Amino acid sequence: MKLVVVEKPSVMRDIAAVLGAAQKTADGALCGNGYIVTSARGHLVRLKQPDEYNEGYKKWSLSDLPIMPDFQFVPIENAVSVLKTLARQMNSSKIDEIIEATDAGREGECIFRYIYDYIGCTKPVRRLWISSMTEASIRAGFADLKPASEYDNLYSAGFTRSKIDWLWGLNLTRLYPSYFGAKCSIGRVRTAVLNMLVQRETIHSVTLSTESRSILYLIFVVRGFFTFGAAAFAAGFTALTFGVFGALKVFGVFVFIIFPPGYRRRIRLPCFALYYVYII
Predict the structure, then answer these.
(1) 9-18, 113-122, 203-212, 224-233: least confidently modelled range
(2) 32: β partners
(3) Is the pLDDT of residue 262 over 80?
(4) pTM above the 0.85 mark?
(5) What pLDDT is stored for residue 244 in this prediction?
(6) Which of 128, 133, 132, 131 is nearest to 151 (CA)?
(7) Which of left, alpha, beta for 204 (phi over 0: left; psi -120 to 50: alpha)?
(8) Could you report the per-residue pLDDT of 20-71, keeping only the tens digit for each?
(9) Residues 6+ away with beta carbon under 8 Å from 278
(10) SS3 sequence of the chain
(11) pLDDT of amino acid 189
(12) Displacement of CA 96 from its chain's centroid (Å)
């Protein structure tokens, strides 16, 4: 018997209909034709918080930083029952193989791998990789299942991002009150985006001449350029990456300064779009 693990109940029903798994089980799965199709319902586990590693971390202290955990998972509070059901299904002696059918992407890969590793499952896994839920696409996907090991790098990328979010967010959120006297939630993405919004608002809200506004914008960009440069070299980025980043962003500054308002957006936005796509 093969167990198909999907991410959402709606996808479970679509795949089960194509596989001929029409009988509903007591735990909410659909079975038939040699398959059991079940749903994970999104993320079921999360990384532990600092005080779950050490009770002493409940009190924020500068001397505890940086906190460097071994990254253990615990169940999300409202997902315990679903996780227990999946553990029972995946470790059942009736199951010979598991088909990973979560969303085709980094997040979907992590959702399945986190659950699989947390419950200690050792059954062989193959990956269903489809981007459409049509009957033809589902049948084609099941006819071309891949070994899960082919997606190890995708999982590593997603898990690494989660680790960076944890290290960046929790350590800096605890660090800032020591210098600014007030709690401030810091995030890898939201803090950078907020910084960009504040910079743009500053440029457009202050009453400055065109020349002065252009100089202010250039200061923001140059500051960001060197900040990224330090991070890039620390992370092992190549000089080529740094050069492409600089060329794209500086070109955007020149467009802002040289071209009249009617042409800026047409030219400058594609330039910045290329810059962000390249970095991401």
Answers:
(1) 224-233
(2) 35
(3) no
(4) no
(5) 52
(6) 128
(7) alpha
(8) 999 999 999 999 999 999 999 899 999 999 999 999 999 998 899 999 999 9
(9) 241, 244, 245, 248
(10) CEEEEECCHHHHHHHHHHHCCCEECCCCCEEECCEEEEECCCCCEEECCHHHHCHHHHCCCHHHCCCCCCCCEEECHHHHHHHHHHHHHHCCCCCCEEEEECCCCHHHHHHHHHHHHHCCCCCCEEECCCCCCCHHHHHHHHCCCEEHHHHHHHHHHHHHHHHHHHHHHHHHHHHHHHHHCCCCCCCCCHHHHHHHHHHHHHHHHCCCCHHHHHHHHHHHHHHHHHHHHHHHHHCCCCHHHHHHHHHHHHHHHHHHHHCCHHHHHHHHHHHHHHHHHHHC
(11) 82
(12) 31
Strands 2-6 and 97-101: parallel
Provide the token pair at 139: 């049948």
User: Nearest to residue 191, comparing CAs of 178, 177, 173?
Assistant: 173
Q: How far apart are CA 89 and CA 160, in angstroms?
A: 28
Rounded Cα gap, residues 12 and 140, in angstroms = 17
Contacts of 49 (CB under 8 A, 6+ apart): 170
Token pair of 81 as six digits:
């029952």
Q: Which amino acid belongs to residue 204?
A: H
Q: How confident is the model at residue 256 (pLDDT cuts 50, 70, 90)?
A: very low
CA-nearest of 230, 206, 227 to 217 is 206
> Which band of pLDDT confidence, cut at 50, 70 and 90, is reported for residue 181?
confident
Residue 66, CB half-sphere, CA atoms under 13 Å: how many? 10
Structure tokens at 34: 């040699």
- Classify the phi-psi angles of 141: left when phi > 0, otherwise alpha if psi is within -120 to 50, otherwise beta: alpha
Residue type for position 74: V
